[in-house]
Amino acid sequence: MIVVVIIGLLAAMAIPAFQKVRTSSQDKAVLNNARQLAAAAAQYFLENGVTFVTQSSLIGAANYVKALNLVANETYPQGFTQGITITIEGIAGARTITYAP
Fold first, then answer.
1. What pTM was computed for the model?
2. Which burial class, exposed, middle or buried, applies to 3 when counting CB atoms under 10 A from its CB (0-12, 13-18, 19+)?
3. Residue 26 CB neighbour total at 10 angstroms
4. How far is CA 44 from the centre of its chain?
5. For residue 48, which phi and psi values (nearest 5 degrees)?
6. How high does pLDDT run on average in the chain?
């Protein structure tokens, strides 16, 4: 009986640590996606001499980013303006991350 209680206590202490690791890894994956989109947008700006691009012009088999893998049901902006901060919302339904290119 004591062994079961000890295992339960250890599990109760480990669960929050695992949740922090999961949150951190999701945030890093989302930030990596934002970096890729910012780099693709910058390349598009240079090649086409414009200051605005839509997400559909950046993502696709024949475009700059082949696929955008969502990790936590996040929402990326539909358009990118040169020099403007990128805001990714709804990460796991609760968090927001900004990336300044």
1. 0.82
2. exposed
3. 17
4. 21
5. -110, -5
6. 92
